[in-house]
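Private note to self, pasted from the team thread so I don't lose it. Backbone tokens:
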């Protein structure tokens, strides 16, 4: 699947963001190895730390529907904002080999990787060592 198509899914999911506090909608779309696309948007909460980001909504929903191997994730914000630290950690856990397309609302994007976003990250290789 072309990056532009995955970004289009993320753009559409972004329209469903629940952002009464920040007014900063984010959409995400994960591409699974079998071709499935699973989307997410940020869902905020009056108890601010209970907010969940679009990327983690998409990745956890993907796991819940049985997907495990992820090829890419697209993230769309109004201005090409980069994924937060918590989302990078979850990307490292669930999709360490993913390409990451970081797009703005016009569809302009840059391509990076999970490893580049979280160098020297803590992963499961440390747990049983
Ligand atoms: N947000 C995301 O959805 N993903 C990120 O990687 C960065 C931040 C959301 C959280 C909050 O709802 C809003 O953007 C402003 O921080």
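Design output:
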């Amino acid at each position: 699947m072309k990056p532009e198509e995955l970004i289009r899914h993320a753009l559409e999911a972004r329209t469903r963001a629940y952002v009464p506090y920040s007014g900063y909608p984010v959409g995400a779309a994960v591409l699974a190895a079998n071709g499935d696309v699973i989307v997410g948007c940020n869902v905020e909460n009056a108890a601010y730390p209970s907010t969940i980001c679009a990327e983690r909504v998409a990745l956890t929903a993907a796991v819940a529907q049985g997907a495990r191997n992820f090829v890419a994730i697209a993230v769309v914000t109004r201005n090409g904002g980069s994924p937060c630290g918590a989302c990078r950690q979850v990307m490292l856990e669930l999709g360490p080999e993913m390409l990451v397309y970081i797009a703005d609302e016009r569809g302009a994007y840059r391509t990076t990787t999970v490893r580049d976003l979280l160098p020297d990250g803590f992963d499961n290789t440390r747990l049983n060592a």
